[in-house]
Specification:
It contains six helices and 15 strands. It is an alpha+beta fold. A hairpin with a 5-residue loop joins β11 and β12.
């Protein structure tokens, strides 16, 4: 997946003021850097001893994001935790309560975007107590999830923040409020994406549960996940493998059980 923001465009001076760039290196986790470059929000950060607009702030808990202005420059934004829910002008009371209660994952509206009618998706960030909006056309969709190729209907639904279900029973949705950009009823997924002209794999662990999922979140070691893990190892992707010990043990066990007469599609 091509990210809308490149690492060389990161506003180093602003990050340095927040104590997130020291001694020539970023102090952010790789996952937070990936979220920033993808145009998403990071996880919550506790920032200390800040000086902003003449005020001194001893501590501020906030998420971070990047935005590109009309001049093409990338700027850093802070999203603090609000004491009360911040209302959204496009939502009525019923829609607001549906999002707050988790009865709906997202709500879409038709708006004017520089003279063009577009669908706008609104979702709720329960951590900062504010609503987030995004345009579906800006969402990059993986080619495959857990080895399953997404059809056009699934791709469109994913872009609109709707829940899609895979053949192995896994349910997931795009989430602009989440640093990983996805929530699922399983704790782990494997995305297959195009990167630099070739197929690469993104192993996602520790995913947050779907708001509407009333069941306990599953570990995610499905047949589809294991097969994608096998393809990832045998296919030698460009991206370094991000495997935990449990992932590796699970893959070794899967390989031994399926070695006789089993061909891995690539």
């Amino acid at each position: 997946m091509e990210t809308p923001i490149k690492e060389k465009e990161l506003p180093i001076a602003e990050l340095e003021k927040l104590g997130l760039y020291k001694d020539g290196a970023l102090t952010l986790k790789d996952g937070d850097i990936a979220a920033l470059l993808a145009g998403r929000r990071t996880d919550l950060h506790s920032l200390h001893n800040l000086e902003m607009d003449g005020f001194k702030i001893s501590q501020l808990d906030a998420k971070l994001s990047l935005s590109r202005g009309e001049d093409g420059k990338v700027a850093l934004k802070l999203h603090p935790i609000y004491k009360e829910v911040q209302p959204h002008p496009l939502l009525n009371e019923k829609e607001t309560q549906q999002l707050l209660a988790g009865k709906q994952e997202s709500i879409s509206k038709t708006v004017d975007d520089k003279g063009m009618e577009r669908r706008l998706v609104i979702e709720y960030d329960e951590q900062t107590k504010e609503f987030i909006t995004y345009f579906p056309y800006q969402v990059e969709v993986p080619l495959k999830v857990n080895g399953e190729t997404l059809d056009e209907k699934q791709k469109k639904a994913f872009q609109h923040g709707e829940v899609i279900e895979l053949a192995d029973g896994t349910r997931l949705r795009h989430s602009a409020a989440d640093s990983k950009g996805v929530k699922s009823d399983t704790k782990r997924l494997i995305f297959s994406v195009l990167l630099d002209g070739g197929l690469s794999y993104l192993v996602m662990r520790g995913l947050r549960n779907l708001a509407a999922n009333v069941d306990l979140q599953k570990e995610g070691y499905t047949q589809g996940y294991n097969q994608a893990l096998a393809d990832m190892v045998l296919g030698k992707p460009k991206r370094d493998l991000d495997m935990t010990v449990k992932d590796q043990v699970d893959f070794d066990k899967y390989s031994q059980e399926n070695r006789a007469g089993h061909n891995v599609s690539r």
